[in-house]
Amino acid sequence: MRRDIASLVALATLALTVGVGCPEENSNPSTGSSSKPTTRAPGTTASTAKPATTGTAAATGTSAAAPSGATGSLKGVANFTGTAPEMKVPAKRKEAELCKDKEVKYNAVRGDKGKLQDVFVRVIGVKGKFETPKKTEIDQKDCMYEPRVVGAMEGQELEIKNGDATLHNVHAKKGAESLFNQAQPKGSPALTKSWDEATVIKMTCDVHPWMRGFVIVHDSPFFDVSDADGSFSIDKVPVGKYEVEAWHSQYGVKKGTVEVADGKTAEVKFDYTDKDEAPADNKDELKGLW
Questions:
Q1: pTM of the predicted model as reported, rounded to 2 decimal places
Q2: Burial per residue of 64-73, b for 16 or more beta-carbon CB atoms within 10 angstroms, e otherwise
């Protein structure tokens, strides 16, 4: 009888030992969980997921993923020193029906004293997927493109309107390449276009050769165009350190860097002078215009 009881105790001890076992190889050491940790792409969120990074930039011009909702803003000004060319009424306006009735000065260089308008400012290297904004537009008023400079995100629709009671011809170019050339009679519906790559589109009119406008396509919604006082602002920029680029049709490209902190406003400025040169695809715009 004693031998039987001892055997039963030994069997029970063995069963308990097998039941405890060893932790599975794929368990999480910090929690003891048997499930493997989930890897999430930058920019994605989940109620139990932790941010993959601290939200600081890996290098100038690129941004590491920041905690969900970590954004800031930037603002700045485009300054101008030197003597700006005098904007006059283009000579050929006097030869064109309708346009000759209004002496509208040209708009290639404008802005308050010491400031520069129509500077396109964009944040470079913002990582992530962003909702494409609703369509934007450019109009033809008094035989001028208005506004002169328009920003658009890749895939965003651009409406090209004709607000004049005369025929226009919308001729769009990327560098030396002609993208489209379409007549737009008075009263006709807007032309709708979009582009899937970051680029600069130059708009001209074959009927009224002084007309010129620009559409700058960017890979994210983080851009703005300076006002008459040279000011610009860009909101809801993910936290990080970035390169910021400014573009003007007469005075070219300027670059700077900025660090965007959560809930803060960073500042940047661009200093243009009358010695700066126009972009290669827009040289001599004012030549022979007066």
A1: 0.77
A2: bbbeeebbbb
